[in-house]
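Running low. Got one?
___
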Amino acid sequence: MPNSKLLVFIGVGLTFVVFVIHHYSNVISQQLNMVKEIAETVEHEEKIVVAQLQHIPVIEQPEESKGLGTPGEATPQQEFERLWNYIYKMQYKCTNSEYLGGRAIDRDGAYDLCKEPKFWERANDPNYKCLMYSFGVGNDFTFDDEVAKRGCEVHSFDPTMDLSDGHVRDSGVVFHKLGISSENIDKDANGWKMRNFKTLIKELGHNGRYMDYLKIDTDAPQGGFEDTLMQELLDTGLYKCVRQYAQEIHLLGPISNPDKLKRCRNIYRQLTTLNEHGWRLYNNTDNVRATRIVQKNPNFQQIQNKAGMVNKGGAILWETAFVNFKVESPCKVE
């Protein structure tokens, strides 16, 4: 058997080896983190240079979002705060816009149209026949009618309305009794006909045309179908042919619920990915109209919805509008 001195020597040696390994692993870890930070800084600066060369407004992260952890990996509170901060920091200022449609009493259902020549082709060519798809009507055609009056071919979609498919309004708006979905279904559980975006482009004969305005304001148990549409735009590359985009974001709480947390993260990821492709948020309207009526409080503000969203529940509705600085080509589907 080895003597006690040898055992002590071996023990001291092993302790020293463990200490050295631990020390240098910490050093290596710190160096890797530094390399990661440098790489992220270089990537950010590269995006700024590219954006400036393409004359696209640079997006700076809101100060309030710094330190909120990694998107997609942070806590429910952090993920919610990140999306909240995103919505309230405009990325572009449209110098010529119209706020169109909506109910006369409170403008519910109204959306913004940016008429700068870069995003509104009729400013360059008054004879240009623009195209708009509007998902979610809710018996309110006011916005769609206004866009049609400005020279657009407008198609409105809503499977819930008691109106015949193919109905044409006096404004020229064509109504389709179907809804937007990730799948093509002739009759879903509600008895509704559903189609995805690319199928509609093909079925309606709009292959090879730009989507001058795309709007979605739909209700669903999970919130809405806006995330479904954004994901299809990203998956198919059809974000390249959309000039302007408006949507009502339906965010339901509690965000601590795994499914609602996942949707919150997905919406933020989709919005920022569209930003990478040249989309810029230029308008947001807090839709608290129904809450003001229910609570009989005409002064109710969105911030009053915020406190309970993570752990208690509730709903936040944002009506947002985007312009696309990198429209590349007409919509093309197989």
